[in-house]
Design a protein that fits this description.
about 375 residues; DNA polymerase, domain 1; TIM Barrel; 2 domains; 7-stranded parallel β-sheet; 7 strands; about 10% strand; elongated
């Protein structure tokens, strides 16, 4: 199984191999590592508090560093909580697993998980990959390998790792040196997977005030997919914002225009009005240069608004339905974008991440 192969390759120094999968629980619902990961996954889908999610992922990571026999003996002796990262709640869940029972908390979460969106089943089924995701190298909450494993578990054939660029210091954006290091990590993770899954080299590069991209052309040319997004001066005057976005779209390395209006419609960060720009001019540039307009699936963004998706559709644009996941469970957010694309009549064939990997890479590196 690809997930197990990847985990063994990453974690080969550990004395115990474990079959870990979190998206389709069955007999593994009594494997404490799989259960802890599944709980974290379900909480992430609900945008639960970060500290709660980290507790479950820390507990799973701690157990992976202990031989299975020691875990069982500690359970018998009542000393599970002596392990780093294991608290009262997680120790109770591990104990239920080791006693051969499906943990009550997991059962409760599964009962309320349901599909995130009912609409767009054909669009959702057609999605092969996800072109926008973050790891703990920038402002994501999980290691690269955890994002990759979860992408496999939820049925993706490829995932683009798009951590932020250097100017976005608040998100720990990657300098050229750090990005170079990350590319080596991505290559190492891909080695054991063969043709089953591909983690792609990418970036969410900041669009600077003048429309330039916040990374060297040399580094951008080394990447598989480049998502370009505006993160600053979102209230810029309309004409200037239009020039800024069109310049970024025309850059030969740009593949996807990310969350184009920058709006927030709900969530812990509050709301934010959309930027003002000539959407017709921006989308015409996207269509002319083969740049996909992102349908950002994060529930707090829902970006672009419906009317702009319709305008981009009429302009002849390609689209990319992306999760913009900052945690493994958020990779499931694609369901929200698929529902919107279906409702607004976006043809599946114009959604680039429904394409096979070879076709996607040919387009991205045109």
């Amino acid at each position: 199984m690809a997930v197990h192969t990847l985990w063994t390759a990453i974690d080969g120094q550990h004395s115990t191999e474990r079959h870990v999968t979190s998206h389709h629980p069955g007999s593994e619902a009594r494997d404490p590592v799989a259960v802890l990961r599944r709980i974290a996954f379900l909480l992430e889908r609900q945008l639960a508090d970060t500290y709660r999610i980290k507790a479950y992922r820390a507990a799973a990571s701690s157990l992976l560093r202990v031989p299975a026999e020691e875990v069982r003996s500690r359970h018998a002796a009542g000393s599970l909580r002596d392990l780093p990262g294991i608290g009262a709640k997680t120790a109770s869940i591990v104990a239920e697993c080791l006693d051969g029972r499906v943990p009550t908390y997991l059962t409760e979460l599964e009962a309320t998980s349901g599909p995130l969106a009912e609409g767009g089943p054909e669009h959702r089924a057609a999605l092969r990959g996800d072109l926008h995701s973050h790891s703990d190298w920038s402002d994501g909450g999980s290691p690269i390998e955890e994002m990759a494993m979860t992408a496999i578990e939820v049925g993706r054939k490829y995932l683009v790792l798009t951590d932020h660029s250097p100017r976005l210091t608040v998100a720990n954006g990657l300098t050229a040196a750090r990005l170079t290091q990350q590319l080596d990590v991505v290559d190492a993770l891909n080695d054991p997977l063969g043709d089953t899954f591909r983690l792609l080299r990418g970036i969410e590069v900041d669009i600077l005030d003048d429309g330039a991209l916040d990374q060297t052309d040399t580094m951008l040319a080394r990447l598989d997919v480049v998502v370009a997004s505006v993160h600053s001066k979102l209230k810029m005057e309309s004409a200037a914002m239009t020039r800024r976005m069109v310049a970024a779209v025309r850059h030969p390395e740009t593949n996807v225009l990310g969350h184009c209006t920058g709006r927030l419609v709900k969530g812990g960060r509050g709301t934010r009005a959309q930027s003002s720009f000539d959407a017709s001019a921006v989308f015409e540039a996207c269509a002319a240069h083969g740049v996909a307009v992102e349908i950002n699936s994060r529930p707090e963004r829902q970006d672009p608004p419906d009317e702009l998706i319709t305008l981009a559709l009429e302009a002849g644009c390609l689209f990319s339905i992306d999760s913009d996941a900052h945690a493994p469970g958020q990779l499931d957010f694609l369901a929200y974008g698929a529902e919107r694309a279906d409702r607004l009549g976006v043809p599946v064939e114009r959604i680039v991440n429904t394409w096979p990997l070879d076709r996607l890479l040919d387009w991205a590196n045109r």
